[in-house]
Amino acid sequence: MSRLDKFLAGLRLRSSTPSFEVGDEVPVFVTGRSDDGLLVRVGDTVLELPDADPSLLDAKVRIEIESFDESTHRGTARVVEVLQNEG
Amino acid sequence: MSTSTDESTALRFYGGRAASAIPIAFFILWAIVQSGLLGIGDTSGLIVGILVGLIVGMFFVRGSWKTYADILFDGMTQRVAATAIVAWLWAGMFAETIQVGGFVDGLVWAAEALRVGAALFPAITFILAALLATGIGTGYGTAIAFTALVFPAGVAIGANPVLLFGAILSGAVFGDNLAPVSDTTIVSAVTQDADIGGVVASRFKYAIVAAVFAFAAYLLAGQAMQGTPIAAASTGGEGTALGLVHLASIGVVIVTAVRGRHIVEAISWGIVLSVVLNLLLGLSEASAIVAFEASRESALVQSMDAIPIVGALIVPVDPGGATVSGSLYTGAVGFFPLIVLVLLIVAAAQLMQRGGGFDAIQEFLLERVATTVRRAETTMVLGTAIVNAMITINTAAEIAIAPYIKTIGRRFNINGYRRANILDANTAALGYIFPWGGGLLAGYSAMQRLPDQYEWFTQAMVVNPASVFPFVFHGWFLVAVFLLAAWTGYGREYVSDRASEEVSRV
């Protein structure tokens, strides 16, 4: 990232429900759990991690988006890599 | 966060975790009654408020009171308090030494020569204070220096005192928020796992918007609120212009600080240069900087007074009037009440942390309030505001609230830069808005000495701390920008938006 980009980063109105494409790989914190497994909230968008290890709650991981519904802002993803797990 | 789970050191209160806030809550109530309702701007009075609060809080402790007392000691010995104290003492000595060197007369001369009238003065002061604070990284130091030096110059040419004090505090807010070497900037970046350079770069988009509005507001208010110039003040001329050489003293501080030297070193060089300039150019007597005012009846005093150089520092006075005086003395001594106050406040904050008061607030906010990303960001802004109202030393407040900002922000994958910006901007802003805030009281402490220094400066020109808060325009606009940004998503970034920077950071 260039120096100018650092100044300009985030200079826009960012949605409270960000969208993802299937196949996207992004870093996120695992933010909660549901009956079906772990959850990742990115803003008000919710991604489910059905097969993830429960010990990854609060860990920083890289996930790959497997499905995403634009209308409900929900999707599923799988953990590709654990980046940081303090707990 | 040092919430102890060890039973022997756990601090528990009758009334639950919320009761750990009693000392601070009592202090705030006292401050509102004293400064706000009764209009008494006496820092020593606030010390009594926090002392009584600490005693009252002790009666609510379950089990041994020794734990309470031990935590009080732990709290008072924190480094953040020492940092603020050092900034106040050094800035106080520096500002006072420049002042006896005629810098204020120089500023009045310059304002007249450049035709900066009373209407324009607050807006210009805001810009200059912002530049100094950004350069030296201490808003407290800037508030002290500008109140001691620029404030009387502005009042002399007819600027409104309350508006002018607000402009100075606004400049301090700007610098505390943006300066890479500011304590609050560093704390915000480190606690939110973001790099300092990236945090500062990402901060401009908020700070500049608020600053543009603040500048315009000072121009408009300056027009509407200007008073009449004071005839007894400087009338200009060569003699008074000479004090402007102290721009070099200020320049030394800025350059040294920007080069990454510690603020103690930077301001010390400024003090050394200002003393040298005062003596070499005859701007002040040596005894105006340091003087031993000793009894004229003592033979030793008489003989020391006759010695060259040393004698310049000896001032024989009537018996009973013996004291030490001079700019270094008054510059430092003026902050003693505030120093005692800050030690007690950080101790009370430590009690609240160890007693679980902050945890209780976080749980309430996470479960009841921060249910969407907009509400979470709004909560982060308001939560920072609440903690700054309680812990009035901005760096200490920021350290206390930082873990909670991190927890709430991560719950929505808000990235480190955004979290650091919300944390720091609102800390910087509110630390200079609340009438019992450390930054505001630092400026006020410097202002209280002005009636002794200028015959024309009357007690009526001293601004009550409780009346300045509406005029800290940059602070208010900064908070407004962040509330608006939380709602609209302006500047919002998620953890997933800026992958490489955060991941690569150790």
TrEMBL record, chain A:
Ranges for domain DUF7513: 1-81
Superkingdom of origin: Archaea
Name recorded for this polypeptide: DUF7513 domain-containing protein
Source organism: Halobellus rarus
UniProtKB/TrEMBL annotation, chain B:
Its membrane topology: Multi-pass membrane protein
Pfam family, one: Na_H_antiporter
GO MF annotation list: antiporter activity
Cell membrane among keywords: yes
InterPro entries per record: Na/H_Antiport_NhaC-like_C, NhaC_Na-H+_Antiporter
Keywords recorded for this protein, A-Z: Antiport, Cell membrane, Membrane, Transmembrane, Transmembrane helix, Transport
Domain Na+/H+ antiporter NhaC-like C-terminal: 191-476
GO cellular component: plasma membrane
Major site of localization recorded for this protein: membrane
Subcellular location, record wording: Cell membrane
Superkingdom assignment: Archaea
TM ranges: 21-40, 46-65, 85-104, 116-136, 143-169, 204-221, 266-292, 299-317, 329-349, 428-447, 467-490
Family label: Belongs to the NhaC Na(+)/H(+) (TC 2.A.35) antiporter family.
Protein name according to UniProt: Na+/H+ antiporter NhaC family protein
